[in-house]
Design goal:
The chain is an alpha+beta fold. It has a domain of about 70 residues. About 35% of the residues lie in helices and about 40% in strands. It has three helices and five strands; from the N terminus they run αβββααββ. It has a five-stranded mixed β-sheet, sandwiched between helices.
């Protein structure tokens, strides 16, 4: 496995631990539909949360807009729409980003709630 893949996998494990410690109920990890993947799907209170995890080995902080490209946002929105429809879910949904900074010990998790919103149709 390539080093960046190992780092990404480790970041997802830290994100998963962070979410559990903060009361999220984890529904799926690495859920796939077609060629699209959602890193983590969880429930936070009465909301369904689709999480994208980004792992960084430097202290360079990116804004949510810089972290997730517009194309990636569309991929996530499409996959989330399919997931909600296919599973007949009747909860409000949101898209969160968890940025894991590994240069710190322990790694720092920056949780960005409502990092982006689907565009109205």
């Amino acid at each position: 496995m390539a080093q960046h893949n190992k780092l990404g996998k480790q970041g997802e494990e830290w994100a998963l631990k962070y979410l559990k410690e903060n009361g999220f109920e984890i529904i799926h990890t690495n859920w796939r539909w077609k060629h699209k993947e959602i890193d983590l799907i969880a429930i936070d209170g009465d909301e369904l949360v689709f999480c994208e995890v980004k792992t960084r080995s430097s202290n360079y902080f990116q804004t949510p807009a810089d972290t997730i490209s517009t194309q990636k946002q569309h991929f996530l929105i499409d996959a989330a729409d399919y997931y909600i429809t296919e599973n007949d879910i009747n909860l409000n949904a949101r898209f969160d980003v968890l940025v894991i900074y590994t240069h710190r010990n322990p790694p720092q998790v920056v949780h960005i709630k409502d990092a982006f919103l689907p565009e109205p149709e």
